[in-house]
Amino acid sequence: MHMKKYLxxxxxxxxxxxxxxxxELLVWYCNNTNTHGPKRIICEGPKKKAMWFLITLLFTSxxxxxxxxxxxxxxxxxxxxxxxxxxxxxxxxxxTICNASPFQxxxxxxxxxxxxxxxxxxLERILAPEQSYSNATRxxxxxxxxxTPLVLIDERNPHHPVVLDLFGDVHNGSASSSPAPGRxxxxxxxxxxxxxxxxxxxxxxxxxxxxxTQAVTEWYLLQATNIFSQVPTHELVEMGYPAERLILACLxxxxxxxxxxxxxxFQPDYGNCYxxxxxxxxxxxxxxxxxxxxxxxxILDIGxxxxxxxxxxxxxxxxxxxxxxxxxxxxxxxxxxxSGTETSIGVLVDKLERKGEPYSQCTxxxxxxxxxxxxxxxxxxxSIQACIRSCFQEHMIQNCSCGHYLxxxxxxxxxxxxxxFPDWAYCYSHLSMSVAQRETCINMCKESCNDTQYxxxxxxxxxxxxxxxxxIFHVLSQExxxxxxxxxxxxxxxxxxxxxxxxxxxxxxxxAANNIVxxxxxxxxxxxxxxxxxxxxxxxxxxxxxDFVWITIIKLVAFAKSLRxxxxxxxxxxxxxxxxxxxxxxxxxxxxPDVARPGPEPGTYPDEQTLPIPGTPPxxxxxxxLQPLDVIESDSEGDAI
Amino acid sequence: xxxxxxxKAKIKKNLPVRGPQAPTIKELMRWYCLNTNxxxxxxxxxxxxxTICNINPYKxxxxxxxxxxxxxETRVALKTLYGFPENTSRKRREAESWNSAWEGTRPKFLxxxxxxxxxxxxxxxxxxxxxxxxxKFSGRIIHKASDAMDVHASKEVVGFQLCSNDTSxxxxxxxxxxxxxxxxxxxxxxxxxxxQVPLEKKINMSYSAEELLVTCLFDGVSCDARNFTLLHHPMxxxxxxxxxxxxxxxxxxxxxGSEYGxxxxxxxxxxxxxxxxxxxxxxxxxxHRQDEYPFIEDVGxxxxxxxxTSIGMHLTESFKLSEPYSQCTxxxxxxPISNIYNAAYSLQxxxxxxxxxxxxxxxxxxxxxxxxxxxANYCNxxxxxxxxxxxxxxxxxxxxxxxxxxxxxxxACSFKEWTxxxxxxxxxxxxxxxxxxxxxxWDQGQQIKKKLNKTDLAKLLIFYKxxxxxxxxxxxxxxxxxxxxNFGGQLGLWMSCSVVCVIEIFEVFFIDFFSIIARRQxxxxxxxxxxxxxxxxxxxxxxxxxxxxxxxxxxTSALRLPPAPGTQVPGTPPxxxxxxxxxxxxxxxxxxxxxxxxx
Lengths: 641, 599
Prior knowledge:
Chain A is α+β, with helices and mostly antiparallel strands.
């Protein structure tokens, strides 16, 4: 009871005007709201009422629909892009130069001697099998061979492919029971495959190749990786091309530069690479003018004669333009420069600036990527390539318990080699072919938000020309080793011109297409357009909703109370009244319940028994009946006035 | 078992996927989360289709007997016009003797389309090289070189004559250089001859996939001729398309860099080149969408032999808005040109189809370079003796945009474009040449009988530089929602008005206004009608017995009885409405907001 009173009081306080029923509340709302439309529902005739009701309903749904469209658009986090093109003084890109061959053959010969002899023997076996028996006397180091041998798979009978070890007859005859017919197969009948074994040679897979060239190249690469991974890095650096041998001349704009202006970095793929204008220790050099005159001019000597013959078949210089302080992934993004030519590269800086979360999945500095960046030792900025490589190395260490030679090593780990990790080739080959691994890494790594690409326009010409050849080679040779005889040739020299184009930048900048101001003004516009409403109208509506809730609560309380009362009444002595009794008791005062009158066949002549009494009976208004005050009050609160 | 262990075991048992490398729960969960997220943007790019052709269409040794006559005549023409091969002293005599030799075998090609040399300054004087005599030429002279080009006035120019059916209309096509003239002339006849060869034979005459591709490596995995689909191009012979959707799913790359792309070594075989048809050597490669037709002759990157060509790609996707924002077409179905190519719509396809259709319409036969429209065949001498004149005329009209093709064809709304960065390097290097060539020869095996030379080979690397993809998408600057909300904003700001206001205005000034007028008029009309149709009844007015009473007759009045004096009708007592009292109770309640204590 107190509760209800309190609630009633609350309702009165909340609103003095509107009334106590839903209907009153609605009428009051329609009359007083600032939203156009509802007012007209109540103050017109029935036809117009219906029409206005429909119109209001229609507009409300229209507004709701439009709002949902706008909110959805806003939540899609679209970006609009602004593009600007032009020329301005910009930092010249960092230029990384490598030789396609990682090492000078003359310096790594002692390491690769066994392997090269083996490779030659392999080639001999494949090309001229019948002669191979003659020079079997040559001593070959079969310890390398036995880890991952190359085999010939004879597929002439597709149901029973015969696997033939290339050196099966030399060191143990178990694999080749019938060597003579198998030896004579050609490329059509036989495929060369690499056998990769793990667990002491019990579990083996064959990595098939459709051509022998690929097979031997891959095999050699694997073996060379194994050898180089056991050599400490400082020795590898010494075996690579030194800067003074690779870079013969350098000119940046009008200023002369030399190999000392290049920062050296060791890359397993290409040995010593040299970076110009990396911006690590000193400020980056700007270039204020377009054109070849103001760019970087380089003359390189790649020394093709000293290439490791089986490791690289392509000759040239590798070149990559990249941002300052970023790690050069030259194998992925680099281009070639051919020897004996002058390669001119016009550069356009294509910069992309993304907005971060929630607009796109990019990362500002890689700190929120769950992969430890192994390239952070070089003090370089984050890039997705670095992340994917680090991720791969992480997986490699997890699965094969050693790191791959081509990727940097986390602290406390070791590079894979056949001696300590005999299964690594098998493991690596599995891992690198696994799609799941790649997808895991790709999903973990995010793109960098600021992405700079250097668009290049490459053109080439023969250099040096036939007329100038002699003196240029002479001068360059003498400068390099103070000797008078020419040591350079057309096969070795590369000339590079790198310069800004007339328009040197194109910046693509993202900005939010739909911001909160846009959203609000559109929401307001729609609401205003259809219904003339504003935020105040929404507040009004909210108020009404609260009132509704109040009324409902009060009604529910009253209902609960009435239920309780009924239960109390039901405790009276005597048999419970029938339904007819109850109905009659409410409507007729003069009613006497005729209980159990044993009439002859009750219901046969109902008319006879209930003949209407002529004359007007006193009006049986319900309200006239006297009732306990409590009940009346509860009624009045329910549906009064 | 510890509770932690138990949970661990339970999770491990219940997880639908098990991480292949997940020793701990944390990693397992991470693996699970990472591998089941589908909404994460996948940085995987579909590898485009790559079509590779040898520049030379057919092996010359095979096709030679078809072209023997043409070759002979070309050589004769060269000798007569330019003294090739260089035995200048005997030139005159040989030409003469050769002229006499013609008596036996008739020069059919030169007769059909005679090559002529004439000097520019004396127009009309033409030396027909076949007969050697000069004759007057009366006809139009069309320079194949543009009119804007200033050809050396004194130089002798070479051209050929094309005549229409009745040979009254002739056009002379001249070239500033004999190289162009001879090549164009040769090509015309070549097309004539090849148009009559059935397709199967042509495919057999060209290079097989095994022959063209020495090695193939995609994404670190070996591939071979089976991964390539054949596409026969009229001018390039057999072309092979890698990663064409027709036989498998589209391959994709998940890593950038040359080792994850396509690496092929091509066998160029310069010995089999047709000396008059193609003057350069190498291969052509084109990167395109799977459903796109590769227009090799128009857009292709040439590959040099004895070189490694590395092509780095960047993908740019463009989506344009169609009508009403721009004139582009989604799939070409609304362009009135039927697509004769078996490929998705593109502007190029539309233009070529349009030209071919017009060609069939005007000349009665189809041009050899393009596919055949239904119910048409390729032009050749036998059936269409003067098609060349027609073709040249039509081509001129096409170039001058007189055929209406350029107006009808529209660009496609979405297209993918691969920006290529091409760089060259020497391959094989000096030191690797020694071992590489023999092993490549072994790989090629029975396809060829000779030892490979490095100029017979070309290496090609096609790869994504990185997996960044650019999408250029047009979106409408103003949508209808924006327009309405801007309207609403302006209306509300300046007039505090809305559509409801407008409807109200409409309601008041049109509906209500007219309804009032209409009601008035209706009432007036009703009155008028009533007045007219109810003429004044004289008996009604004159009848004194008529007593108009407002009340209905009661029993008493009806019987005209005097009201009974003193008789009171027992009326009902005034009802004591519950509500009346209630109101009082309510108002009292309101005044003091105090509910009286209940009894």
